[in-house]
Amino acid sequence: MRYAIAALLSLLLSVGANTVDAACLRGCTDLEMSHTTEVALTLAQSDTPAQTGAGNATTTSNTTTNSTINPLKAKRVKVNFYLNSVNNINDELGAYDVDLWLDLFWYDEALEGKTIDQVDTSTLWTPKAEFVNARSTTTLYESFDNGLEDGTNVRFSQRLVVTFFNNFDLRQFPFDQQTLLLKLESNEYDSSQVLFDFAALEQPPAHSEQAFVQPIPLGKYFSNDTDLQGWTLSNGRVVQQIRVLSYDKSSWSQLRIEITATRFYQPYLWKIILVLLFLIL
After folding, report:
1. pTM of this prediction?
2. CA-based diameter of the chain, in Å?
3. Residue 167 in contact with residue 176, Cβ under 8 Å?
4. Which of 127, 118, 185 minimizes the C-alpha distance to 146?
């Protein structure tokens, strides 16, 4: 019955669905062309090879195509996060707004025997991390502190408001689930120079093109106070993977946050019933 209703709705609204697909394609084009700056730091880069921060790196590309990266030569950067809210899910554009805290931890030899207060933080090395599927990023806060994670002595904290983009599959509308993606990479250092690790892991996995998946409890990494109208958030996971660009074979460490959003379909059932009554009468 559920699939029959979905099929009927798809037939009745086929024109609308085509409009959605066209709008999505236009959104993809806009994302590939955008590269603007908002408060302090604003990034707008797509995840296509031609526009990703990794593809525009000024460092020599890593042409190694081995499935596993040598971790001894790369600087390890631990990543932690907390999502304050998710808002404004846009079906047509596949866009959504996320307010989050992002913490990065690493070891800097320049801080050997010192604390953050004893150095000029503007001179410290940073991994040049950014969300490569961000349409825009606004930095509300950022600071350096002493790293408390094992093997680190620097903590870089940011509060960000980001508009993300992902292609939504609307073929099962309104009984659909969508994946909200947050893709973090360096825009300067390839995987031979920087590797991102989820801070919650006791033992970081070997980095390779094969995805390593770590389920996460949403209550620990996502605020329960958020009222996401029309959707409910269920599964969450962190994915670590080496992403190889097809056009130059360079490889980049990616840490990806994936959240499953399920649509409330009940309000749409009344519309379906009204359409059926109209056809019958």
Report:
1. 0.72
2. 82
3. no
4. 118
Strands 95-106 and 75-90: antiparallel
Backbone angles phi, psi at 227, to 5 degrees: -105, 95
Specify whether the backbone of 230 is left (phi greater than 0), alpha (psi in -120 to 50) or beta. left
Q: For residue 64, give the nearest of 192, 167, 217, 211 by alpha carbon.
A: 192
Task: Report yes or no: 174 and 9 within 8 Å, Cβ to Cβ.
Answer: yes
Give per-residue burial for 4-35: e unless 16+ CB within 10 Å, then b.
ebbeebeeebeeebeebeeebeebbeebeebe
Asked if residues 79 and 213 have their Cβ atoms less than 8 Å apart, the reply is no
Amino acid in position 250: S
**Burial class of residue 281, CB neighbours in 10 A (0-12, 13-18, 19+):** exposed
Q: Give the bridge partners for 101, in sequence order.
A: 82, 159
Q: 182 has which bridge partners? A: 257
d(CA 232, CA 262): 5
C-alpha distance from residue 28 to each of 131, 140, 163, 205 (Å): 16, 26, 14, 33
Q: Please state, in angstroms and rounded to a whole number, the distance separating the CA atoms of residues 270 and 273.
A: 5
pLDDT in tens, 214-230: 999 888 998 876 667 78
DSSP labels for 121-186? GGGS----EEETTEEEEEEEEEEEEE--STT--EEEEEEEEEEEE-----TTTTS-EEEEEEEEEE
One-letter amino acid of 71: P
Q: What is the pLDDT of residues 14-42, one digit of tens each?
A: 434 443 343 333 333 343 333 333 333 33
Q: Is 258 helix (H, G, I), strand (E, B) or coil?
A: strand
